[in-house]
Design brief:
It is globular and about 55 Å long. Helices cover 39% and strands 18% of the residues. The protein is built from 15 helices and 16 strands. With 365 residues, it is α/β, with parallel strands linked by helices. A nine-stranded mixed sheet has the order 4-5-7-2-1-8-9-13-10, with helices on both faces. A five-stranded mixed sheet has the order 12-11-14-16-15. Helix 1 runs parallel beside helix 8. A hairpin with a 2-residue loop joins strand 15 and strand 16.
Length: 365
Amino acid sequence: MTRLIVAAGGGGDAVAAAMLDAALYGDDDRAVILTYAWDRLLVDPIPGPRGADNFTGLKPVTPGVWAVPAKARPIAPAGSTLPRLAAELPHTFALLDPRHGAEGVTRQLEELVGHLQPESIDLLDVGGDILARGDEPTLKSPLADALTLAACCQVGAPMRLLVAGPGLDGELPLEVLRGILGPTVHTLTAKDTEPVSSVLEWHPSEATGMLAATARGVRGTCEVRDAGLPVPLTDEGPAVHQVDMDEALSRNELARAVVATTSLDEVEAYSREVCGYSEIDYERNKAAWLKEQPPTVLNPKAVLAELDHFEASARSRGVTHTTFRHITEALNLNGNQRQDLRELLLNSRPEQYDAPLWRITTAPE
């Protein structure tokens, strides 16, 4: 017997799933984590999610589900964090492929559940935008969560929906979510972050990074994403809530709309209709813009001077922390330079590292 955790939005939700597995079920548990291969453009320059044919070295689990082992590789120019996750964590990462819409995702879930006969099934979302109606002005990336919710609600097996770190993805504020969240099933602690501590040193997920930071006691306001969204880091940050799945579906208009879809194009069309946009369109536009940008050189002296200006501006906005992803984009560096930037900052100003976030000093040090 094993456990199955479905990472609703892919990306950092898969890391959070590994953290939650140990926290809820013990350090020796080895859940199968079903997740999209959908990373931000900092990692994968191709917009949208990757499918099985975008990898080499996958291992078949069922006819429609493939595991991503450490030796797997995305086919260039695609990128993916999943092989490295598989190399550093003891879990099995199975690939959720959304290209056949909700019907395809449902089939994959049913195959995997039938094959594994799991002891428990959890659907996990970090931040809580899986509970969006679809018309919220702050909502940025509803598609993956809505599609996963639509599919999970069609699977004939007991499953619970968990929301970790409500509000931490910078999309739905905690005030909006508070009345929807069910009981707290766990509050993450610093100890709970230890199984994924090495991953948090390189993985670009901002929401899961803030989830771990709040579990470690970090409080304040964190500025994230290319748009510089302010996210409060509060005592509610490490909480994991259970939410009624039927209530979530009845609330999520996009999830209800995509239930019978058979292609990702259909899902995108419904997203444009319900929400007014598709986040994959946003990625397409940004990818095209990035291609037109001239190459940049990471000049340490210039970078640290620009960082001083950025931090002064951030302090004036009441910001106490930020992510290395946000600094990378704020300083107009490219995704390939994020790790070099991180090493530069940690070597030059280690006192500002509130793992895995960067602390904005209250005054120049």
